[in-house]
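Journal club prep — side note

Before the paper discussion, L.F. wants everyone to see what a predicted structure for a comparable chain looks like in token form. Sequence:
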Amino acid sequence: MKYINKKLTIEKVRIQDIAKKFGSPTYCYSYLQLKKNINNFKKNFKSFSPLICFAIKSNTNINLIREIKKFGLGADVVSMGELMMAVKAGISPKKIVFSGVGKTSDEISYAIEKKILLINAESESEIKEIDRIANFKKKKIQIGIRLNPNTDAKTLSQISTGKKENKFGVNERKFFELVDYCRNSKNIELKCLSVHIGSQILNYKPYEKMIKVVDRIINKINHKFEFIDLGGGMGISYEDNDKKLNYKKYSTIIKKFLKKHKSKIIFEPGRSIIGNAGILISKIIYIKENHKKNFVILDSAMNDLIRPALYGARHKTLPSTRRKKSSNQTYEVVGPICESTDKFITLKNFQELKEKDLIVMCDVGAYGMSLSSNYNIRLKPAEILIKGSKIKVIRKRQKYKDLM
């Protein structure tokens, strides 16, 4: 995005023109940024050509998944619905991995029927259920076992997944037991060791610790893993002063690991692929004056973008039109939902804002629309994809008749 003649544009389209034609709130994605993210990810790890499985949970728009699929990516899914979406988008089942701690019997059966690459199991009970279903279907199923490496990703507690107190994966002792179980099963092929330590990681050192644990585990066990699934979690810069993950160092650590262990690496990125490709366009309904601050009330709410309410996340906020005049007011940007947590950001030393102005919240491509809801019986926003000067509606705005 950039300002041209004081008007904010995404690729070659003005934000004002988008809002005029499609209304607000509207999610808007840049194809060029999506393409750049995918190519950069591939470039950083090209020396060992990993299988890149896009984390569907980060953005579930089928049209975006189809675009991502064109770059050769697979899918990481965590529910039957996500698996159905990935298959419908045209992703090869041989590039799909199924993660998650609570797969039901129906979900496991569906994954087996679709002949996906891997079911990454996370407990003894799950492996036994896979074994039972596979035996009933008279099929041999490829699985991975998710190890909990007890590694702190140094990120938000709400998105940490690799510490011993988290619900994900199994500990070292149980991992060894389950490897033995799989060896003795006629219906299971243990193909993968899987790990995933969290999300929005901006430092390579937690990954380094994670890989040391994986290396130690493999050295203790006489089993050849065809795949090592290192999960995702690569972060993006939500604010100008955020540091960036050093992909070069992470790649070097993995290459050193692969000299000892000849396995295919799987990644499950989501945010790093789609996060900074999306924006949310909103209109100011009212500005409500207060003796300490002014409430800027948007037509967007926490049902449209829940990350600030859920995680305390901050999204860079920009005006659609630049003004020279700055305000000495403190603006608290909020939504119209009847919850005190329905607020997005507090702006100080910002330009003067007026009612009917458009503002843009940046970097909402991941866990924006996919976490949206109809709370307060509010309609979900439209989603559009920008390619240069071309605009494509990739999800229509909901209508009340759809809900009623």
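L.F.'s comment for the group: The domain at 2-29+275-403 is CATH 2.40.37.10 (Lyase, Ornithine Decarboxylase; Chain A, domain 1). Keep this in mind when we get to the figures.
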